Design the sequence.
């Protein structure tokens, strides 16, 4: 059977990684974006952002001619049988979802379909509020193309679960595929695509209606964020009495196979392009229908509060930090990425500044350039760990990069003015560090 040609609308993490993986398995793929700079880079085989193994894979699929980047959605639609929509759905000022990219690209897909005779399947991969695939994407396409959904074109919503930092692995080895379908034909076309792509692998595949699939994504991220929020709450309780340790507590809890050990690490807070945005968006959606989700609202409160709490711990340990140098180790929202969207470091820097602590120096193995765009001159940027520790009177470890894990109490003693260290990710051996330097960590006193 001949492979369908695919267009991927949107070249962020999800779009570009999906496009590259499809192209690597021999599919002809056109990926589109609004940014000409990105098109130029990708057509030269250069990854526009850091993602493990992407550079190499992209180079090979572009040189083989399987992936083309373009600015033209109409061209992409006319030269493919299936379009996967993965444009950004960022958070607006009021914390609701920005659907403008979905709106624009679906109108442009409609322009393409207007000139097309054959059946075409449109699949939303972006995280969008329930109802949007049918009422915005489907209806926009109908309006512009004059065609009917279900008859002339198919419509599906397939939530994406990949994590930054392991996006390629997650795309090649998903633990399930969820297909929300307008009708049987739409679902069949999409199921066939993935059955072929994952042939030989045994991946559970669920089919349901579009709105439930849209909600799967929100419920999924909300549950994971709730697990992390819960772990942070338990960590606070563990800090109320000596000798309780959240790490051990969560190890004990995680072995219950109804719970699982994953996403129970209490730390400096959750960030990234999904958790804060998605929890906020679904709360907002519910509020507009007169329901206030209590658990989810508390999860956001716990997360917001964690930044203040980290700085409280730092000042309990080191005394007032005004006028003294504070070092932040790790600025990205998690290791192995240079992404700083909603990173805990942003909330921690705001908290430090609000307390009049201006002498802040940050070090991150990959996110320095992103951090400069976020913080500008509000903090200083070190080129190495040593430089970051020099003259410092307090370290706050925010992101658990591997290169921080090998640091010893001796390293902090050697380079810092006073070795006060707050371990916001529980990467250091509490007993060992506690004995040798002034040390505090989340979830243990
Ligand atoms: C997440 C989801 O995992 C993924 O399925 C979805 O498609 C997109 O959102 P991602 O944002 O890449 O992926 O990062 P993830 O690894 O889930 O971590 C999110 C945040 O939670 C990070 O800031 C991380 O540090 C924090 N976290 C995670 C914890 O604080 N503790 C944990 O135990 C796990």
Sequence:
């Amino acid at each position: 059977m001949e492979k369908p040609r695919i267009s991927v609308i949107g070249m962020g993490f999800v779009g570009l990684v999906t496009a590259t993986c499809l192209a690597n398995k021999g599919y002809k793929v056109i990926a589109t974006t609004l940014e000409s700079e990105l098109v130029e880079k990708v057509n030269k085989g250069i990854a526009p952002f850091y993602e493990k193994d992407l550079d190499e894979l992209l180079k090979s699929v572009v040189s083989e001619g399987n992936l083309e980047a373009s600015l033209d959605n109409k061209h992409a639609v006319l030269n493919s049988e299936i379009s996967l929509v993965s444009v950004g759905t960022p958070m607006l000022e009021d914390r609701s979802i920005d659907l403008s990219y979905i709106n624009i690209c679906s109108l442009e897909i409609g322009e393409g379909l207007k000139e097309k005779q054959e059946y075409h399947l449109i699949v939303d991969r972006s995280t969008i509020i329930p109802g949007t695939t049918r009422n915005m994407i489907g209806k926009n396409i109908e309006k512009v193309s004059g065609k009917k959904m279900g008859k002339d074109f198919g419509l599906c919503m397939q939530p994406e679960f990949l994590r930054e930092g392991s996006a390629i692995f997650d795309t090649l080895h998903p633990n399930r595929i969820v297909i929300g379908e307008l009708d049987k034909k739409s679902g069949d076309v999409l199921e066939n695509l993935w059955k072929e792509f994952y042939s030989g692998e045994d991946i559970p595949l669920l089919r349901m209606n579009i709105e439930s699939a849209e909600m799967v994504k929100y419920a999924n991220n909300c549950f994971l964020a709730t697990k992390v929020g819960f772990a942070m709450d338990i960590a606070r309780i563990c800090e109320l009495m000596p000798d309780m340790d959240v790490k051990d507590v969560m190890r004990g809890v995680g072995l219950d196979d109804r719970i699982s050990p994953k996403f129970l690490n209490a730390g400096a807070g959750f960030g990234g392009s999904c958790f804060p945005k998605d929890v906020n968006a679904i709360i907002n959606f519910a509020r507009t229908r007169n329901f206030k989700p209590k658990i989810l609202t508390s999860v956001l409160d716990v997360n917001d509060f964690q930044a203040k709490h980290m700085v409280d711990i730092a000042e309990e340990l080191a005394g007032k930090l005004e006028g003294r140098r504070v070092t932040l180790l790790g600025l990205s929202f998690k290791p192995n990425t240079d992404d700083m969207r909603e990173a805990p470091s942003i909330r921690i820097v705001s908290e430090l500044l609000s307390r009049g602590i201006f002498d802040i120096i940050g070090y991150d193995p990959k996110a320095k350039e992103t951090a400069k765009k976020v913080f500008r001159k509000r903090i200083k940027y070190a080129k190495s760990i040593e430089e970051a520790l020099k003259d410092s009177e307090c370290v706050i470890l925010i992101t658990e990069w591997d290169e921080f894990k090998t640091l010893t109490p001796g390293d902090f003693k050697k380079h810092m003015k006073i070795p006060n260290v707050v371990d916001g990710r529980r990467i250091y051996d509490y007993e060992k560090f506690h004995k040798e330097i002034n040390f505090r960590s989340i979830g243990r006193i």
Observations:
- Residues 160-164, 221, 224, 228, 263-265, 267, 270-275, 333-334 surround uridine-5'-diphosphate-xylopyranose (CB under 6 Å).
- The two ends are 63 Å apart (CA to CA).
